[in-house]
Amino acid sequence: SKIWIIMIACILDSANEYFADKSAFQLTWRFVLTIFVIYVLRYLYKLIFSPMDYTWEDSDMKGLSPFDKHKLDLKRKKKLGTLPPFPNGWYSIITSKELKAGEVKHISALGKEWAVFRTKTGKAGVVGAYCPHLGADLSMGTVEGEDLVCPFHAFHFNTEGQCTKIPYQENIPNSMKCQDIPRVVEKNGSVLIWFDVDGKDPEWEVPEIPEISDKNVRWRGTTRHTVHTHLQEIHENGADQAHLPVVHWRTIFFYRPLWHQWGIKWAPNETHKWKTDFEVKEVMKVGNWTVPFTTFNVEGHHIGPGFVHFKMQSVFGPIWVVHNLLPVEGFLQKSNYEMWAPKHIPVWFCKIVLLGWANQYERDIKIWNQKMFLNAPQIVKNDGPIVQYRRWFKQFYSEKGTKTKVDFTNPDFF
To answer: Per the confidence metrics, is the pTM higher than 0.90?
Structure first.
């Protein structure tokens, strides 16, 4: 405390000398200069030391009217045919840092509406948004202790969706519970829910990233994107090796002699059928000369339809990235990248990496937003393991997931 008193005294003394015996004009411009310096220092502090929070949407899609987007959606669905809109699996419905104790939020996902809340003790709950009593939106309610309270008649519901209190009567019917009650877990910085169109229990669990669970790394930023395509298209990118030198050769500076060289390997995991393994090597070059300290080696895994886990080796050390994908509707996906890194890796470096990552991803989004899904594409020899990928992904579909009966034995479908 003595050090702070001395520092404040020094600042006041300097300020007194700085502004003493000056004319009104001098005082004015010095005051303006001081405010400008404070603003610049604050900006530099945020730029260098604050984690990144970045949101982007394709300007071509943003400019469309809701009616035009609806027509585009109908056109795609007609061409799409029988691909089910929502694959079965785990999904991140919200990141942990976005949901504080005592908060409740409304989230649209998987063709449904959800009330997502966190109890006073920190437990996350996810239930169907509409109260089973008379249909009020529970996300408009409040959290009291361990319960979510309906804003209409103050019915209490716990994290299991069961009614625990009716203010004006003692007995509670056993049937008084929320309509949708998914399995909920919290790991890797997100609140996860299990979705299965047949109502089956989880067949596998999302693996924990020990460095995140043990808090050995720090959160360094997030990117948020809206993607107007089917979820399968996004994952298929990992197996589409031939698009890398076409779409992703340019750097974020768009300077032609400076370019990216890519190498990728992809294969289904031999132990866990819901998982794939891939390796990516990326290096920046000027002509044929490799730029020093620009090599990134990435080890990654597709975890079901909802996640991709990355571990990147950089010049400063390892960086972990989790890609969360959440279907809102069949052709509308929420996508966000969450980055973690050890304390010694500078925040500014992580922001540069994450911004470059987002820039590359946005090039894919512009193509996805305007393309159609082909059930039986004309694959050529050097396209990469796209067919193998589609055979792997079909495990997350069931016939109940589509209005039109799908012949899952037909190899042309996948």
So the answer is: no
